[in-house]
Specification:
Elements (H helix, E strand, L loop, with lengths): L8 H5 L7 H15 L8 H17 L2 H10 L11 E2 H9 L20 E7 L1 H6 L1 E12 L14 E3 L8 E6 L2 E6 L8 E3 L11 E12 L8 E4 L15 E7 L6 E3 L2 E9 H6 L1 E7 L2 E7 L8 E4 L15 E8 L6 H13 L6 H14 L1
Parallel strand pairs: 1-6, 2-10, 12-16
Antiparallel strand pairs: 3-8, 4-7, 5-6, 9-10, 11-12, 13-14, 15-16
Bound molecules: zinc ion (ZN) (2 copies).
Length: about 375
């Protein structure tokens, strides 16, 4: 049964009508590689395109079918097979290009699942760099059966589900595809007596500890890949990767903005008015800073190079200190009297901002 409606096959492959067999093959090879579902996981459009170019090449790559297509603009229903074995066609055209790339679940060297583990660092650890012991539980080859899944000394039989091939073919529309056999997980054999330790799976859970160094300046969300520390594949024993995701814990005093560190320091009204030395926290401990007389709320002081080290070793960011001026919520009898006195002695002259404000007010309403 021919699929309908058909797109122009030459157009699908992007070749001229007089293209040679080699040109057709080259065009198909390029497009099939490009749209291969294994290279575009989860992209239904790529799979559709892949099937489309496969169908086009199935027709144009065959002298007789091509002649018929050129003459009638389509292939006679009887000439179109019930299915196109995409995997076989793909293999025959792409041949040795497939050493590490293969169609539909037919990965030549399947590796196990990647694992992802969060690693929590304090801000200080991130600033200085740190060595962390990471614990991970991963699927490893069973040490009793060496990953074969068979009780030591017992033989294995060819898998009855795939006749020992390790893969099964299945049909999807007119396309015939292949996937790893679910029964033997692509191994092609099943143990006669399953290993008692792993119940024939060939893999066992194993806790592992590894020491990983995080460099100074590491950022939140950074992913560190540790090759070969993921789960092992049942089929080949080859392990996937371990991905360590850096989570930087919130700090009670500092927030990070790129390489800069921000913090707020509360001072009293007399301190702000008179100025003087204040104590400021840094990642390395406390430092003294001079507060200029008449400091306004929100005023920012900068501590150069006291921020986070820049990743890659280009110095460090700054620490920005924002001054908060606190108004007392409770006053003693004596304090109240003093503030009262202060208020009386103050005229508009000593408050530049209030003076301008009052002037603007007058200007607006008088
Ligand atoms: Zn075992
Ligand atoms: Zn099988």
């Amino acid at each position: 049964m021919a699929p309908a409606p058909q797109r122009d096959y030459y157009e699908v492959l992007g070749v001229a009508r007089e293209a040679s067999a080699d040109e057709l093959k080259a065009a198909y090879r390029k497009l099939a590689m490009q749209h291969h579902p294994d290279r575009n996981p989860g992209d239904p459009d790529a799979e559709r395109r892949f099937k489309e170019v496969s169908e086009a090449y199935h027709v144009l790559g065959d002298v007789e079918r091509r002649a018929q297509y050129d003459r009638f603009g389509r292939v006679q229903p009887g000439q179109m097979p019930d299915f196109i074995d995409v995997t076989d066609m793909f293999d025959s055209v792409l041949g040795d290009l497939l050493s590490n790339f293969a169609p539909f679940g037919r990965s030549r060297k399947p590796v196990g699942r990647d694992l992802r583990v969060d690693v929590e660092l304090t801000l200080v650890e991130a600033a200085k760099g740190v060595e962390k012991t990471v614990e991970v539980e991963r699927q490893c080859a069973c040490d009793k059966c060496g990953g074969r899944g068979a009780e030591p000394g017992s033989a294995s039989d060819p898998c009855p589900a795939c006749n020992g091939k390790g893969e099964v073919k299945y049909q999807q529309g007119i396309f015939k595809l292949a996937r790893a056999c679910a029964r033997c997980e692509g191994r092609g054999v099943v143990p006669r007596t399953p290993c008692a330790k792993c119940s024939g799976v060939g893999l066992v859970k194993k806790g592992e500890r590894l020491v990983v160094t995080f460099p100074a300046g590491v950022e939140d969300g950074t992913v560190r890949q540790v090759r070969g520390y993921g789960d092992a594949s049942r089929m080949t024993g080859a392990a996937g990767d371990l991905e360590l995701v850096v989570k930087i814990l919130p700090h009670p005093l500092f927030t990070r903005e790129g390489a800069d560190l921000l913090c707020s320091v509360p001072v009293s009204f007399p301190q702000a008015a008179l100025g003087g030395m204040i104590e400021v926290p840094t990642l390395e401990g406390r430092v003294k800073m001079r507060l200029p007389p008449g400091t306004q709320p929100g005023h920012q002081l900068k501590l150069r190079s006291k921020g986070m080290p820049r990743f890659g070793g280009y110095g460090a960011g700054d620490q920005i200190v924002t001054i908060q001026v606190e108004v007392p919520t409770e006053l003693s009898e004596t304090q109240r009297a003093l503030v009262q006195k202060l208020a009386e002695s103050m005229n508009e002259e000593v408050h530049p901002q209030r003076k301008t404000f009052l002037e603007k007010l007058r200007h607006l309403f008088d």
